[in-house]
Design a protein that fits this description.
Elements (H helix, E strand, L loop, with lengths): L1 E7 L4 H14 L4 E5 L4 E5 L4 H9 L4 E3 L1
Antiparallel strand pairs: 1-3, 1-4, 2-3
Helix pairs in contact: 1-2
């Protein structure tokens, strides 16, 4: 299922990798596309939306629907 999140606090490539790694620790098969300038993260995953948002938030980023 493809889901889009607004993620704030990503300022560099390291931030993007941290978000992608957090999602892929939860779902190794997840496809993650990040547009840092737009604060947009698109995730194609079988995991629940809440679980994905929690994984990103635990890395220290703000997450909104």
């Amino acid at each position: 299922m493809n889901q889009t999140f607004t993620v704030t606090g990503m300022t560099c490539g390291h931030c993007e990798r941290a978000v992608k790694n957090a999602v892929q620790q939860l779902d190794p098969q997840a496809q993650v596309s990040i547009d840092r300038a737009a604060n947009r993260v698109d995730i194609d995953s079988t995991q629940a939306r809440e679980a994905l948002a929690k994984a990103i938030a635990e890395e220290g980023y703000g997450v909104a629907a």
